[in-house]
Write a structure and sequence with these properties.
The protein is built from 16 helices and two strands. With 372 residues, the protein is mainly alpha-helical.
Length: 372
Amino acid sequence: MPGSPRLVDLVHDCLVGFLDEQDSALRRVSPELAELTTAAREFLAGGKRLRARFCYWGWAAVAMRTDSLDPTDESAVHDRLDAVVAAAAALELFHAAALAHDDIMDNSDLRRGKPSLHRRFEAFHTESGWSGDAAGYGRAAALLLGDLLLGWSDDLFERGLTALPASAAAAARAEFATMRSEVTLGQYLDMLDEVSWRDHDDLESLERAHRVVVYKSAKYSVEAPLALGAALAEGSLAQVSALRDFGLPLGVAFQLRDDILGVFGDEAKTGKPAGDDLREGKRTMLIALTRKQLPSSTLRIFDELVGDPDLDPDQIAMLQTAVRDSGAVDHVERMIAREVGDALAALDDAPLARGARDELRQLAVAATDRVS
């Protein structure tokens, strides 16, 4: 994925150093708590660092407005780089917290091809031969680690703001707080739709699915990191608005691609079982569009199967065929192309650094034309 190669290293180093500090503090309480930081390190080791990259290029788009400056030249931007790296790393901690909680709610076994946090702690309980319910212990431990990661994201974020002007710090703090609230609300709406979908007609189901896309993913994955980066650089209203106009449709396209991968993705590439969204009963745009097109006889079977955690490979294949034959996949692909087109068009005359706009265009393609 495009972006400053050095940024990924800087974010990695920031996370490693921060977790080392936390590990020392936890060990002073009890050596047994080291298992939490060990799990956190392993969980944070993977991922595309997408939110970190968008945060950086949102900042660079404003800070490097003078075209003679190279946004990858750290010596030219040293005075703000530490704050940007800390914010980018804080976004990764926040994302890890959200994934930990999401996997508990979805009862997911895997994340990035490895056991999800609650399964990891469940296995630790079993291997240790402890008393009580291993699965319950796993869920509780992962919930607490998710809470810890959430608090740590705030701590690291605030640390990065100390060297910034008060106005920039306040603006960045507001963006971070809004993002935190919106993704939590979006997660609740997603959970709500999984159980209340029978109460809504086809049109309302599509509207509700789109609302979840916007608040659970689009804003938090792309728009908010861009706006946060711009806030760190004291971007103007016009600059922040341009980044939002780019970020929101791109974030929608990013999640729509995830929805397709959640049904048809290759487990070896996505790190999650094929058809996982079907087992979890995710009420995505893809599923809403499928239901709208299915004949009543097929729809009854489709509704009986979607959300069954024990779906076997043959049932998954049957549901995948129904989704594909309904035309929903082609419809979502057209939606993705339209949203990406809108995002790219928003950059054309935007008051942003030319080099950063080029990088954002590359990120747009990489974020939506992917297999994992």
